Amino acid sequence: MTGDRVSSSHDFDLIIIGAGSGGVRLARMSAQTGARVAVVESRYLGGTCVNVGCVPKKLFVYGAHVRDELEDAQGYGWNISSEDVSFDWPTLVANKNAEIERLNGIYGRMLENAGVTIIEGTASIVDPETISVGDKQYTTKHITVATGSWPVIPDIPGKECLLTSNEMFYLPQLPRHAVVWGGGYIAVEFAGILAGLGVETTLLYRGDLFLRGFDDDIRRFTEQEIRKKGIDLRFNVTIDSVEPNDSLYTVNLSDGSSLETGLVMAATGRRALVDGLGLEKVGVELNASGHIVVDEHFRTCVPTISALGDVIGTPQLTPVALAQAMVLTRRLFGDGEGDMDYSAIPTAVFCQPNIGTVGLTEQEAIEAGYRLRIYRSDFRPMKYTLSGRDERCLMKLVVDDHTDKVLGAHMVGPDAGEITQGLAVAIKAGATKAQFDATLGIHPTSAEEFVTMRQPVS
Predict the structure, then answer these.
(1) Tens digits of residue pLDDT in 123-157
(2) Are 10 and 139 within 8 A, CB to CB?
(3) pTM, entire model
(4) Which positions ≥6 away from 236 have C-beta within 8 Å?
(5) Which residue numbers are catalytic?
(6) 169-185 residue pLDDT tens
(7) Before 157, cis peptide (omega within 30)?
(8) How far is CA 22 from CA 135, 169, 245, 319, 408, in A?
(9) Helix or strand or coil: residue 252?
C-alpha cells in the first residue's frame, strides 16, 4: 500500500469514511496528488472537533472567562455595576452555531476545490474494494476509516437522564445547578465552563484525583485552583443511579449520599465509532477496547483498508489525526516514506486556569530510568496584583540530570496553551536546560519564568 498511483479500474482511488479532521486532511492531500477521492459523511463536515468538540468548547471557555475579566476590571479603575451586567445563554449558543456553520462551509469548499467528491450518508463496507451508501455502491482501490469516537454513558439506572458533551453545546437554557461526572479533560473543562457562566457546579470522580496521566504536581495544583472557583470537587465517588424528580434530577451516589440538580453530564469516556461499518464481515480486527487494529503505517489486516484518528486509539487530539493523514497520504499516493512520531505531543486543558503540557511527566521520567532535576515556580501572575484575584500560576521543568536535556514542561495558568506551544518546539528540538537559561526572557511576562528558573527543587 505504499506509493500507489491512481487507477481507472475503480470508481475512486480512495474512499474515506468520515469527514472529521483526519478524514478531510487525507482527502485534500490525496486529491492534490491526482488521486480520485471521495469522502462519506453522515453528520457534519469537520467531525467532533469543529462541531461538538475543540472549537465550540473553546468559544464557551472564552464566554465563561468574561465574568473573571469583569471582576478584575475594578482593580484597574473600571466601574462596572453588577446591576448593569447580565448574561444570555441563548445568545452565546446562537453565535457559536453561526461560527460552526461558517466553518462547515469552509470545509465543504476546501474539499470541493481540491476535487474531492462529498457523499452524504452512512457508509458500510461491502468487501475490501466496495462500500455502500444508501442504495448505491462505490468501488475503490483503497478505503480509509476515519469515523472518530463517540461519548459513552455508563449503564446505570436512569442513564437516559444524562447528557454528554454532544448535547451540552445545544442546551436550550442553563440550569441553576449541574453535576459533571468524570475526571478527564472534558469533565474538568465543562465544569469550569458551567461555573464560569454562573451555574452551581459539582464535579464527581471515582478516583483520588482527576486528570490521570498528567503530571502529579499539575493535578494537585489544578485541584486547588479549581476549588477557588467555587466548584464542588468530590473524589472517590461515582453515580449509582439518577431519578427524574419533577423538573430536577436526584443523583444517588456510591457513598450513600444524593444530590438534587437540574442537569447531569457524563464525561466518562469515548468509544471508537465503528457501529454498522461491516468491519467484522470483511475481516478487519478490533482490539479489546473496540479500536481498529493497525500497524505503524495505519494498515489493517485487510490490505486495502486503513484507518486513522480516534478510531485507532491513538491520542484523541486533532493535530494527531492531521499528522497521521499526512503520513498516510505519502504512503498511499506519494513516495511511500514517512512515519508518525508520537513523542513530545503538546496538549492543553482549557479549564480555568488553563493547563499546558509537553513531554514527560516527572513520574514517566522516573519510570523510564532517568535521574532528574526538577525546577518549579509557583507565583501570582502580574495581571492579578491589582485586581487581587486569588489565582496562582505553576510552571515546572523536568530535566535529565545526565544530559541536561529538558524532558518535559508543564504549566497551570493564564494562556498556558499558547505558552506551551513554543516550548514544544524547543523540547522537540532537544533543548537543554543550559539553553533555556541562555535564552533571554520577555519581560514582564509569565512565560519568562521558564527561562529564569535557576535552582532545582529536587
Answers:
(1) 999 999 999 999 999 999 999 999 999 999 999 99
(2) yes
(3) 0.95
(4) 205, 206, 207, 208, 255
(5) 443
(6) 999 999 999 999 999 99
(7) no
(8) 27, 22, 42, 9, 27
(9) strand
